[in-house]
Amino acid sequence: MAKTAAAKSKLYSRYGKELYIAAKSGVPDPDMNLALARKIKEAKSNQVPADVIKRAIEKAKGGSDENYTEARYEGFGPGNSTVIIDCLTENTNRSYTDVKTVFNKCKGAKLANAGAVSYNYEPIGLFVFPYEDEEGMLDALMEAEVDVQDISVEDGEMTVKTTFQDFAKAQDAIEKLIPDVEFSVCETTMYPNEFVTLTDPEEIESYHKLMDLLDNVEDVNKVYTNVIIEDEN
Length: 233
Known about the structure:
The protein has 7 helices and 10 strands. The chain is an alpha+beta fold. The protein folds into 2 domains: about 1-60, Arc Repressor Mutant, subunit A (Orthogonal Bundle), CATH 1.10.10; about 70-233, Alpha-Beta Plaits. The strands form 3 sheets. A 4-stranded antiparallel sheet has the order 3-1-2-9. A 4-stranded antiparallel sheet has the order 5-6-4-7, with helices on one face. Strands 8-10 form a two-stranded parallel sheet. Helix 1 runs parallel beside helix 3 (about 50-60). The longest helix is centred in the first third of the chain and has 23 residues, at about 1-25. The protein is globular, with a radius of gyration of 19 Å. It starts with a helix and ends in a 5-residue tail after the last strand. The mean pLDDT is about 90.
């Protein structure tokens, strides 16, 4: 229960920062700020409470002087796995030091230069939700002029991948076709072109340690990895 609460707190903090940035980048009104409107829609789809959304927008309206910088770090994990870490921070020196410290604590992990890992990932829009009509979904997305990369169905769950740029259009089209849709995944993400399956218990333990420590770094916003652990998928 404590772990679930911590995960929710991290999610709310992440969206609070992203909403604040979107609101500060233009007018803090979703009717006049398309980026903010899209971020609000994404937050709601991920069960972010209305009061978290409201606080972030009110903070931007209040003229807060907080300035977050986006910082991306790349590295290698155990078993030749790869990791991308996106931070939102007010102090890039702090975020770099904190992330580097995490990698130094985990066996088989090391930070890499910019581009050493990300070249093998693609930015996409990713949706997972209960639905089985692939043809009907494809028609709806094509009608909305969404650039669809892939649609698949497994055990009653549909996975839709779109280009990063068409994320908002795709979400609108899906919600129009399925008004009561409940997403288990609704996000923009970095999707690996190749996956690595970890089987060695020591490597799996080190990987979990790496993920847990990164999750505890305040500036870390999102973590992307190419790891598959079969018993956990």
